[in-house]
Sequence to fold (155 residues):
Amino acid sequence: MTRVIAICLGIACLACRPSARQATAGIDSLNAALVHAYRSHDPVAYAALYTDTAVFEWPAFNTVRGPTELAAMARGNWASLSDMDLRLTVSTRRVAPDHATEFGAFQQSWRDSSGVRMTEFGRYVAFLLRQEDGSWRMDRFFGFEDSTRPSSTRP
Fold:
């Protein structure tokens, strides 16, 4: 009888746990919102994608903590860039019930103040937290540039 109860409880717990498909859809939605924030030059929308305890690390910048600093960083970095675009290519994602880790590559392109279109290529890892409402936010982001070069077209 004890085994039957334990098995039933285990099945019930698994049934309550969000599926990997739901997690993937939620994280893909977060990534789409990130791309949209870049394309629309919206530092407030960008910062809203992070938790209150978020940490952003990039070798070329001082470490940034929390949404207020993230919005200020984006506002300052994006000021001289126009026609910005971002592409993310997820290479692997590991999902647990309350968090996920994502590894991937990115291409960020923009037109600089002289009108030259530039594309930066790099790698990233993000640690994501599931929120109480089931949505996802970034809690830690680490990225680094592989190369930057002029391009004649959008990536």
